[in-house]
Amino acid sequence: MSATATARETVTETTFAKVGQPAPDFNLPSTKNMETLDENVKLSDYNGKWLVLLFYPLDFTFVCPTELTAFSDRIEELNGVGAEVIGISTDSVHSHRAWIKTPREENGVADLEYPLASDVGGKLSRKYNILVEDENIALRGLFIINPEGILQYANVHDLNIGRSVDETLRVLQGLQTGGLCAADWTPGEENLSI
Question: How far apart are CA 105 and CA 82, in angstroms?
Answer without folding.
Answer: 30
